From TrEMBL:
A GO CC annotation given for this chain: cytosol
Known EC number: 1.1.1.23
Entry protein name: Histidinol dehydrogenase
Pathway info: Amino-acid biosynthesis; L-histidine biosynthesis; L-histidine from 5-phospho-alpha-D-ribose 1-diphosphate: step 9/9
Active site, per annotation: E327 (proton acceptor), H328 (proton acceptor)
Catalyses which reaction(s): L-histidinol + 2 NAD(+) + H2O = L-histidine + 2 NADH + 3 H(+)
GO biological process: L-histidine biosynthetic process
Family stated for the protein in its record: Belongs to the histidinol dehydrogenase family.
Amino acid sequence: MRIEKLTESTKKNLLEDLLKRSPNSYGKYEASVQQILNDVKEKGDEALFGYTEKFDGVKLDASQILVTDAEIEEAYTEVGEELLGIIRKALVNIRTYHEKQMQYSWFDSKPDGTILGQKVTALQRVGVYVPGGKAAYPSSVLMNIMPAKVAGVDEIIMVTPPGKDGKVTPTTLVAAKEAGADKVYKVGGAQAIGALAYGTESIPKVDKIVGPGNIYVALAKKSVYGHVSIDSIAGPSEILVLADETANPRFVAADLLSQAEHDELASAILVTTSMELAEKVSAQADAFIKELSRGEIIQKSLDNYGHILVADTLEDAIDAANSIASEHLEIVTANPFEVMTKIRNAGAIFIGEYSSEPLGDYFAGPNHVLPTNGTAKFFSPLSVDDFIKKSSIISYSKDALEKIHTDIEKFAEAEHLTAHANSIKVRFE
């Protein structure tokens, strides 16, 4: 891995480099994505099945697109008891964590006849996108469905691309059933996002779409935002390790590579106050790459977006971490909890040398759907809040309104909105 001195210049160059990975930088695909969305909106199932045959190489119709109970039962026979047990353990942790995020309606009544409040309502129908292809990500299924389930969403619909055999990956199906998906449809890509956003003869329109996908899925979600809500426009995965001389270089190198193996656009960054640690981590990373199955992908990721930055002080290192606003941030320093209090921008913060990033990916409980590409400066992890909405409650008695009606009328008249003023005035003529 390349080792650089942390300066304002290297930090600026790094930030510019990382932003190149944003879905917003792939405008050349937008026209083709928009064409797919328009076709699905206008032609419904006809376009949906046509694009599924074109992109996924499988011919489906309305009688085959919905995963059946028999297919789910078959998936259970193919997933071993050991993995099923692990999925169920992870679900307990994920559910328990998200239950603590629950918000409830509240009402505040006063003796003068005023009642103000907030009504919390779960979304009615949500769509969850799950990538297919060569890799299966049952952990992503759990993380996207469980907060919706905890929030009380009435209907959770999952879409995922089928394989060439017209089937869904067994681990994906089992995870969906265990987490509580109501229906699973065999469709992926931008066409699946269009179906969820606009509805077709087979797939109902949803209120919100969540879940990761490739660049076509990301751009499709961006395009349909407004017709429906979305969670975020997800970019490539990223990790930043903030470490001092007390860190174990073998652990740090292993953690950096855990994200670099996602794809060639993934980013792995070490910011440290120790040149000795920097050199040991770089050497250890090189050694690990020779042993790991996705070594070629890891190497390209590190060549493109892997950095080791050596800072003069811990404060400089913390400042760099806040500027980068990484999706995953590990703190491996002598006083990690003290450092954590100075972190303003990060998707998920892992504290101490035994809080490795994959702990959050699979098992600990907090959501692994996190803001990327610096959006941790203003976005949060996926949570129960993403699956609820709030309505304001206002109720005034005649006596309560009478005390303030002239104030409201004068405010309205100051804005030259006489009908507003009249709406209040007629009640006291």
